[in-house]
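Obj: model holo form, ligand = magnesium ion.
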Amino acid sequence: MPLSTHPISFAAIIVAAGKGLRAGQNVPKQFAMWHGKPLLRHSVEAFAKSDATKIVVVIPHGEEDIAHKALRGIEGIQLVAGGPTRQESVRNGLEALAENAPAAVMIHDAARPCLNAAVIQRLLDTLHRAAGAIPVLPVIDSLSVDGDGLMKGSANRETLRRVQTPQAFRFAEILSAHRDWEGPANAGDDAQVLLAKGGVIAHVEGDEALKKITFAEDFMPTLPAIRTGLGYDVHRLADGEELWLCGVRLAHSKGLRGHSDADVALHAIVDALLGAIAAEDIGAHFPPSDARWSGAKSGQFAEHAARLVSDAGYSIGNIDVTIICEAPKIGPHRDEMRFSIASLLGVDTSQVSVKATTTEMLGFTGRGEGIAAQAIATVMRE
Ligand code: CTP
Ligand code: MG
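Output (holo structure tokens):
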């Protein structure tokens, strides 16, 4: 038998009426895109999936349009205008629910997008024994009291907790505490408001994922640790041309024709590297229409691609290139080619593989009309 009697019915208030100044976005942070959707939408969707009987979203005065856009397609949300402080915004949300008062209310910052059902449940399970329940985390570091840049004392971290939202309250108690609040203009959170009225507030286990999104760097996308890219290129074999493959000049009866030196293998490698960091393709960086690249050594394209990979915060893991032709034989030049590619890209030869295949005399490569190359590149976050 569960200890709590029947599930307590609750409404949710999400406060999103701040200015979000520290986040430095071009709209208040709650409406800025974060992991594919407006920050606010994450929490609203989480509550929409929960058993909340009603969801109130407190927004800045006059921002209905942007709020509607951020919440498009989610039914039954009540928008309420906030106040100049978080405490007043919460109070406005509570007043909007007062007429049809729910048994309990969860008050949550829009700035904490990673809300999960387990925290909501832990909080609700606690309300039968306390007027309020808040998610908390331990303090890991030791503490120092600062005074003008000097340590003035310490505090016992064992008794301290970091406080998050959502915070759950019995509705009548938190409403009257907010109505009576006489503390500083901006209460740190709603638990402080209830505590000032002597309300009992229980601690439940919080979740690091509930971290508040505050600064511009919190909006930077988290890049995948490993990415791959694919490249493919073909050039025509013609008389009177030099044959360059992987930055190595080979003696052959014909050479590859192209705007640059037509090093088909390096071109495939460049496209693989650009693909791995989603940086368009070789033609976008070195357009054939640009006279600067006429007869250019493709090695500089490879060096440029390696620089872009590094600028994107990645280093090259490995390169694997396959050259498709009947002739010349690639095997005797393999090591020189691997060394050449490694030098251009600033990696070790062991990170570069060069392979070759024929197409059994079939197709344009089989007939010796051209050479094709395909490459794959793996890059790793630095
Ligand atoms: N909030 C609010 N009304 C206010 C101030 C804040 O509803 N007058 C909300 C914010 O939208 C946010 C939450 O309270 O969801 C926590 O506040 P904070 O993270 O400080 O957000 P902002 O005040 O918007 O940001 P900043 O302090 O960087 O300007
Ligand atoms: Mg603030």
